[in-house]
Specification:
mainly alpha; 2% strand
């Protein structure tokens, strides 16, 4: 079950960049979500511009594969936001929209998961961190389906099971572990501040749903999995496109030279 985890006592470099990305995202999430809790649409748009700027700056130091992963994550998560929130009503933002800072925010969240996953801390203490996450999220999920809370959370318990599959069967468990921390952080802050609210009853299966659901990290793991799995095929497609364009340019140059040569001969 742990075959995709780093080896026991694995060593990895503690790169300042990885911890900087994570720290910046955690701070930005806390500030932006609290501002948006009472802010205007204009402020949302301004935060959107700031978030895109931050994301672009952070991607500057990443390789091509990570950049493509982030692009896929942003695109897929944005589609998911419109479907799950606006169309299905699984959760609702204050203005009934998808705030402008959310798409680039998803990019920063994904990049944070990648940065923490490759960090020396997560590489060295992978199993201890996994035990902690399973214990905390499992306890949270069990509480949600007990008779104690006023609002049940059957969805959270179901998502927790899905999260376990990602964690112990997926090929990128460290990314999923890291995703739990940043996504739980943003969900707790966002719902506590009132920036968005999850529906009491989930609209598809009519199950009770917490605010937020305990296993909500599973939704973000889906975004991560799509980004990781889709990057290589997209890069190959881009390379083929670039090669084709290059061939077309060469063919045009050869054709133009032939025309010039004919004109000279005439």
């Amino acid at each position: 079950m742990l075959r995709h985890f780093p080896p026991v006592n694995a060593t990895a470099d503690h790169r300042l960049r990885d911890y900087f990305i994570a720290s910046l995202t955690f701070i930005c999430v806390a500030i932006s979500l609290n501002i948006d809790a009472s802010g205007s649409l204009e402020q949302q748009n301004t935060m959107g511009l700031i978030a895109w700027t931050f994301l672009a700056a952070l991607l500057y130091g990443e390789n091509k594969e990570v950049r493509v992963q982030v692009i896929i994550a942003v695109a897929f998560a944005t589609l998911g936001e419109h479907f799950a929130s606006i169309y299905m009503g699984g959760y609702t933002y204050r203005f009934g929209n998808v705030p402008a800072y959310v798409p680039p925010g998803h990019g920063m969240v994904y990049l944070t998961a990648v940065a923490l996953a490759r960090s020396g801390l997560f590489q060295k203490y992978a199993r201890s961190i996994a035990f902690f996450v399973v214990l905390v999220c499992g306890t949270w999920s069990a509480w949600g389906i007990s008779s104690y809370p006023e609002q049940g959370d059957q969805v959270g318990a179901l998502l927790f099971c899905v999260f376990l599959i990602y964690l112990f069967k997926g090929r990128s468990p460290m990314v999923y572990l890291a995703a739990f921390f940043i996504t739980t952080w943003l969900e707790l802050i966002g719902t506590a501040a009132g920036t968005w609210k999850w529906a009491t009853i989930e609209p598809v299966m009519s199950l009770s749903q917490g605010n937020p659901p305990s296993g909500v990290a599973a939704w973000y793991c889906l975004v991560d999995a799509v980004a990781i799995g889709g990057a290589a095929p997209l890069l190959r497609l881009m390379q083929r496109g670039a090669d084709w364009i290059g061939i077309e340019k060469i063919d045009k140059k050869i054709h133009q030279r032939e025309i010039h040569q004919r004109v000279r001969n005439d």
